[in-house]
Write a structure and sequence with these properties.
The protein is α+β, with helices and mostly antiparallel strands and 309 residues long. The protein has 2 domains: 178 residues, no CATH class; 90 residues, no CATH class. Helices cover 34% and strands 24% of the residues. The protein has 7 helices and 12 strands. It starts with 5 loop residues before the first strand and ends with a helix.
Length: 309
């Protein structure tokens, strides 16, 4: 593993335009609506890994003659690590699978490398970072990242979240800092309401927004709201998607604009509201090298254990 090379990618989830915002929070709302972006990513990964297991089990991988669909990408051997998850990423072809362990969870064995090339990858959802070990026999690393993104998009959690997942290579230390900050950026939410019937702010705004901020654990004065009629669960999604569930400094502003359509939400990026994230520190080059070194050591340790088994 001395020549192991790692590449970083950013995974970002952004909200789609949302409408039909005029109602008060109802009892029994779906708990998934209060999920944060990192939680969304983790659930997508877990569901994608579960689907891979189902496909392999349906193909009865314990039988030597079994076959699965041609060039099907799979997530195997998903395991929790500090701050994220480690897993194998590879593809199987229309042939037998002697290199796949039929245990649970299924994994590629050391002997599989010459039959079904695979690589190791790790997802750190709080930073929105994906790390993939280069494996030329499998594919280009960027291709592997895109195939993983496709697996994540093909999950119930992705469809429930109504968000857009994008994957982008991280080029260098400065770019990594920028990607991490983007993952933690906050958007200003502005609801434009047309005259002559602006909504009742006490019933349609104050109560559901109070519920939303309490659900996020935001303290007194951490979130300020004025006017507008927004579903509490919708606002919850917006806060979680843009500020990783903390509710810090999220602003909602109501403007009465003559002739404006009332049921529409506008999102605008406000760079000055960006959170100060702990990682990486001011010296981005040192932070980048440190994360790369830690990731490399982790990969080498886990892969060496796998090869001994």
């Amino acid at each position: 593993m001395a020549n192991l090379r790692l590449e970083f990618f950013s995974l970002t989830l952004t909200s789609k335009i949302q409408g039909e915002l005029f109602s008060v929070e109802e009892e029994g709302q779906d708990p998934a609506s209060s999920s944060s972006r990192p939680e969304n990513l983790m659930r997508m990964l877990e569901e994608a890994a579960g689907a891979s297991v189902d496909r392999l089990v349906d193909g009865d991988i314990s039988e030597p003659e079994s076959q699965v669909a041609s060039q099907t990408w799979q997530i195997l051997d998903l395991a929790a690590i500090e701050s994220g998850s480690l897993f194998q990423l590879g593809r199987v072809s229309k042939r037998t699978l002697p290199g796949v362990d039929a245990g649970f969870p299924p994994r590629f064995t050391r002997e599989a490398q010459n039959i079904h090339p695979y690589t190791w990858a790790a997802l750190f959802p709080d930073l929105g970072l994906l790390v993939i070990a280069e494996q030329n026999e499998l594919s280009k690393t960027k291709t592997a990242a895109n195939r993983l993104a496709e697996l994540l998009r093909d999950t119930p959690e992705y469809r429930r979240s109504k968000m857009v997942l994008k994957v982008k290579p991280v080029k260098d230390a400065t770019d990594m800092v920028e990607q991490v900050r983007k993952a933690h950026r906050i958007l200003k939410v502005r609801l434009i309401v047309g005259r002559p019937n602006p909504p009742r702010t006490d019933v349609l705004i104050a109560q559901p927004l109070k519920v939303a901020t309490e659900a996020l654990g935001a303290g007194e004065g951490q979130a300020e709201f004025s006017g507008g009629a927004i579903r509490a669960e919708t606002l919850l999604d917006l806060i979680n998607d843009t500020s990783t569930g903390t509710g810090e400094d999220v602003q909602v502003k109501l403007e009465e604009v003559a002739g404006a359509r009332p049921r529409w939400l506008h999102l605008r990026e406000e760079p000055n509201l960006a959170k100060n994230v702990e990682l990486p520190p001011e010296d981005s080059e040192e932070a980048y090298a440190g994360i790369m070194e830690d990731a490399l050591a982790m990969f080498e340790h886990v892969v060496s254990l796998s090869q001994k088994s």
